[in-house]
Amino acid sequence: MNVVVVYAHPYDGSFCKGLLDTVTSHLQSRGATVKVKDLVKMKFDAVMQPEDLKAASTEIYTDVVKREQEDVLWSDAIVTIAPVWFGTLPGFLKGYFDKVFMTKFAYDVGVGGKHKGKRVFSLFTFGSNDPYLDMAGQYECINLTLDNLFGSVGFIDVATKFYPSVPIVSDEKRKQYLSEATQFVDQIIDCQPGEVGQVGNGGLTTRLHMQGYLNGKV
Ligand SMILES: Cc1cc2nc3c(=O)[nH]c(=O)nc-3n(C[C@H](O)[C@H](O)[C@H](O)COP(=O)(O)O)c2cc1C
After folding, report:
1. Structural domains in the chain?
2. pLDDT digits (tens, 9 = 90+) for 69-87
């Protein structure tokens, strides 16, 4: 099982780093081959440059983007680990996927998503508490974003795990959070593709694509 872990946090002292270490060593202990993409340490340029966007028609990608695309193709599953900033993914994590999942590599009119059957498992940390996050629509915002991002390009499992109140929870709770993270990624090994399913509107974008929206049939 090949897993790419996309990690988007600047601090080694963060809870996200604890999640990264736990998830990586757990997946390896379960026999997976793991490649970690630490976007900050890689100094990944998340800004969409003219040459990146031009690739939507030319399919000529920069060497940096090509390398990431090769790893997407190599992977059976992607794991993302990030804090939530202003109700959604940090911009540089979204920027990574905007560039790597460029048109034609990721989807095409008349074809739909080109990464059918792939799977993504995303872990997010929050500063706010659970009732607030629900009322403010932050869980929904993330689920809809991931549904549009990964559903559109054909992913069959799009799963999220949320960790509220991270800065104020007890050490005991943090240990519980880490243990839940190992159970969450165990699904990559233990569940068949498609068994976990999709978040958000239950694969809204996938359903719309199948009904013919966006590919010229409707
Ligand atoms: C720019 C910025 C925006 C943030 N916006 C949110 C937010 O919308 N909702 C929330 O619950 N926490 C928000 N936070 C708090 C972080 O999500 C929280 O500190 C982090 O997830 C804690 O985990 P960490 O130790 O891995 O950083 C924000 C933090 C920053 C720096």
Report:
1. 2-210 (3.40.50.360)
2. 999 999 999 999 999 999 9
